[in-house]
């Protein structure tokens, strides 16, 4: 005789489990709650404390840029009582920060664009090639990471003097672009090697040319690396003082670091304009980090959702 066990009978026959034990098992399966901070409350307090200490100089700089010199004399450590943008107008026009800003933007953006474009193509070729000579070429490129850029200041000066690129923003941008190639190739080659070769084979089967495969399939997949390279090259070029000081002669070609130093010498007691100049110099870097962070997160999470 066959006995049929229904779902109700199976439930009755199952051993009883305490409610507390069941709840504990469910919590272990679900993992920790999302509201618990990683590292505990102490780590969160330390991180927030560090954030406050790091942002405090920037906040003080911005607040002081809206004060007047009279306000500085009467209350050096106070807050702006009557906020004004007169210091920004003076720094932008009288201090020629508009010209310095345009020069820095042209030199930095041009150098980063040239360096990234050349390095992306070179890194893709080095990552996909099997010939031994390309391994030697990669080692040659990476050897440029061992020498600081400022050690070549004298050879670069004599080279530019011989070919007529002294006091030229184009020459300065080309020098920065060449100096950034080793680091860019180092980062991009690693990313390209992590991409499966089946993507290129599928593109060839679909009729795509080598250039189309590179520009439309491979380059979009290394957006995090491109954003990283752009940020790490933009910041040192934007803040560099030595090469513009040596290679540029006329004040109309000065970049922001050199122009800011020149402005400091002429307006040592004009504190509000000095703080305004510092804010003008810092704003592009902050905006770049915000934009680059979004690009990196978007590139890393691309294709994860179904």
From TrEMBL:
UniProt lists compositionally biased (Low complexity) regions at 1-23
Q: List the membrane topology term(s).
A: Multi-pass membrane protein
Tell me the Pfam families matching this sequence.
BPD_transp_1
Tell me a GO biological process for this protein: transmembrane transport
The beginning of the lineage is: Bacteria, Bacillati, Actinomycetota, Actinomycetes, Micrococcales
Q: Which SUPFAM superfamilies match?
A: MetI-like (SSF161098)
Designated name of the protein: Sugar ABC transporter permease
Q: Where in the cell is it found?
A: Cell membrane
Keyword tags: Cell membrane, Membrane, Transmembrane, Transmembrane helix, Transport
Q: Where is this region: Disordered?
A: 1-36
